[in-house]
Design goal:
The protein contains five helices and no strands. By secondary structure, it is an all-alpha fold. The protein has one domain.
Length: about 90
């Protein structure tokens, strides 16, 4: 699960490493305060792994429409290797 953090796909999906870190931190705080998980918690899964799985499954994301944060699709130029992968 934590291996997903090494993938550029997750970073580009959110819009950068700092945005990913902020999203994880915000959701992790919600989980610690008692929010219900949006994915099934597998045995031995940590809270951080739970949050990462929620992001991977598209259950949580940054709400670009209702914030002043620019959508990464509008500002990030994907490397050629990512363009080829997304075109498939």
């Amino acid at each position: 699960m934590i291996e997903a953090l090494k993938s550029d796909d997750l970073v580009f999906r959110v819009g950068g490493r700092f945005k990913l870190a902020a999203l994880v931190q915000h959701r992790w705080g919600e989980i610690l305060e008692g929010a219900r998980p949006m994915v099934e918690r597998k045995p031995g899964m940590t809270d951080i792994e739970l949050v990462i799985q929620e992001i991977l499954d598209g259950k949580i994301a940054i709400d670009y429409d209702n914030s002043d944060i620019p959508d990464p699709k509008e500002i990030i130029c994907l490397p050629d290797r990512m363009k080829k992968k997304n075109a498939k």
